[in-house]
Amino acid sequence: METHKQDKNFEREILQRIRKRNQYEVEPWEGIIRSHQRLLEASDNLKAGNIQLTVEIEKLRVANQEFTANPSSNSSNAEKLSVLEQKIFKLQEEITELHRRKGEHADSVIQLSASLKAKEVELDVAKTRLSELETARDSLHCERSQLEQKICQKDEELRLIREEHSELLKDHHVREEEHKHMKSECDDLINRWVQIKQDEVDALNQTNECDIRVRPPTPVNARRESNISLSPPDDSFELVEEDGPKRWTIPPPLFSEGFPTKALFSWEAHQGEISAAKFGTGNLLATGGTDCTVKLWNVYYNSCTQIGTLEGSNKAVMSIDMDYAAKFFVSGSNDCACRIWTSDRRLKHVLTGHTDSVFAARFLSGDSGRIVTGSRDRTIKVWDTNNGACECLLLLEPCRSHPCS
């Protein structure tokens, strides 16, 4: 069946090629060939007419000679002579006209021959172009067959991947159900454990309250309470007058223990994420982000004003620090380098030597002339800020994680 289809396709392709060849080789020349045939026919007709006229001229010349040879002929011969002369004159005019038309047709034949040669040149160019296109088409057919084979291989790989994916999804659903079951059990255990601890706390508090209520005041305690001085032992104590004698107690603290729950204010600092922040002396704050910049801010109680931008990093800034006097700023970034800026926002040094991202960069305590940096390449380096040279190198090969600030 496939062989029959291929034969039909081959026949169709041959038929298409023949039609295209006729279209390129026959149709452009059909008009020229027809006009050339018409010119040849006209030329043949003119040649035949020319021969007939030549014969008639010869006949007239013979008659003229006979007439001149017999001058004693009658008047009828004179009339015939005039008629013959008129015919000769007309025939000469016709011959002249035929020669003129023959010259015109010869010019037309020359022009058509030149046009035919030009068309033949164009035909040769078209044949060359057609052969090139056929070669390109054959190469494209080969490429298409190769691509079809690759597509079949990729489809097979995709089918295998989909089967594996479906199996993994089933496994994932099973694992997810197990996780949900274990999580519910864990939550139940935590709730039970919390309830047990709460019961223990309640029982302990109840026992303490019962002990306080049951225990009577001793005379010694009464005397001591009657002899309590009304002067506070310290300014942090306050006088309490409730049921019973007066006493001094410590007031509750001003702030309760715990984490802050509300921000004083917020602002848009960087175009991307903020990966580092450092407070300096006074109200100075330095922030660094994924937009490859370090920005300096003047922070008040409920407002913030930008006072400068430190540029030069090629990737995200991961760490920021400044010396005590805020004269120098240092940053570590993901481009494996550290940068030192002065207080007038000029880049002083670019410290290169790490082979991976720098996650920590700090001034040594009390020394603005040295900087220590930690990188993801598991090395720690100490730098001299005056000349940008590395003074010390520490390797952390046994460590599985990278140093952070």
Please characterize this protein's 3D structure.
This protein has 405 residues and is of the alpha+beta class. The chain has helices at residues 2-25, 27-69, 75-214, 219-226; strands at 238-240, 247-249, 274-279, 284-289, 293-299, 304-311, 317-322, 328-333, 337-342, 347-352, 358-364, 367-375, 379-384, 389-395. It is elongated, with a radius of gyration of 58 Å. The model is unreliable at 217-240 and 245-256 (pLDDT under 50).
Uncertain parts: 217-240, 245-256
Biggest sheet descriptor: 4 strands, antiparallel
Order of helices and strands: HHHHEEEEEEEEEEEEEE
Strands of the biggest beta sheet: in what spatial order? 3-4-5-6
- Report the end-to-end length measured between terminal Cα atoms: 75 Å
Shape field: elongated
**Count of beta strands:** 14
Return the average pLDDT rounded to an integer. Answer: 78
Structural class: alpha+beta
User: DSSP strand (E) fraction?
Assistant: 15-25%
As a whole number of angstroms, the C-alpha radius of gyration is 58 Å
Number of separate helices: 4
- Please estimate the helix content: 40-55%
